[in-house]
Amino acid sequence: MSGKPKLHYFNGRGRMESIRWLLAAAGVEFEECFLETKDDLIKLQKDGSLLFQQVPMVEIDGMKMVQSRAISNYIATKYNLYGKDLKERALIDMYVEAVIDLNELLMTHTFQPADKKEQHFATIVDKATNRYFPVYEKVLKDHGQDFLVGNQFSRADVQLLETLLMAEECKPDILAKFPHLQSFKARISNIPSIKKFLQPGSQRKPPLQEKDVPKLMKIFH
């Protein structure tokens, strides 16, 4: 288990996508091993690769890491994306945890039953524009710096950008009232490692389509 990190997950976003973003932002090349069938998952479970019997799992530095937050914390620390001291790390954690909450809402939209989709969409827009985005807008406005924490590129910037782009996929004008977030999006998107990840043909995954849901259900249920 040496060389490039190896990511074990299905060929889609889910809980692995933020990990892909972090590795890409750090300029780290990685390999992917996609689960195609239920048997692929069972094989990993039976050979002891999955500590808690679930993916995502990342092979890195001789470890088979599970639990997406633990994986992300390790990568962020290893590649200097986690602030310069304990206070900065606490801020980064707060910003990232809120982003994860919104990300979860966005990720689960495709799985909603037809009669719940409209209400779920309304909840996404309400929480994004009234609870989460105003906080990041104010942070960027108040300190007048390029990045969220310590004027240094961190995982908070990476994961906020990921979620901003997901929100725009859901509602293209969702950032209309947030000029500082619009500037942030443009600025972070132009960091060379991020810009590369946003190009067609990268390992960034497209939004989940409804037609993909039955295949996922067969793997995981």
Could you list some keywords that capture this structure?
single chain, 221 residues, Glutaredoxin, Glutathione S-transferase Yfyf (Class Pi), Chain A, domain 2, 2 domains, four-stranded mixed β-sheet, globular, glutathione transferase activity, GST_superfamily
In words, what does this structure look like?
Helix 1 links the parallel strand 1 and strand 2. Helix 1 crosses helix 6. The chain has a 4-stranded mixed beta sheet with strand order 2-1-3-4, covered by helices on one side. The protein is globular. It is of the alpha+beta class. The chain has 2 domains: 88 residues, Glutaredoxin, CATH 3.40.30.10; 105 residues, Glutathione S-transferase Yfyf (Class Pi), Chain A, domain 2 (Up-down Bundle), CATH 1.20.1050. Helices cover 54% and strands 7% of the residues. This is glutathione transferase. Belongs to the GST superfamily. Alpha family. It is an enzyme of class 2 (transferase).
Topology:
Elements: E1 6-9, H1 17-25, E2 31-34, H2 38-46, E3 57-60, E4 63-66, H3 68-78, H4 86-108, H5 117-143, H6 155-170, H7 179-189, H8 192-197, H9 213-220
Parallel strand pairs: 1-2
Antiparallel strand pairs: 1-3, 3-4
Helix pairs in contact: 1-3, 1-6, 4-5, 4-6, 5-7, 6-7
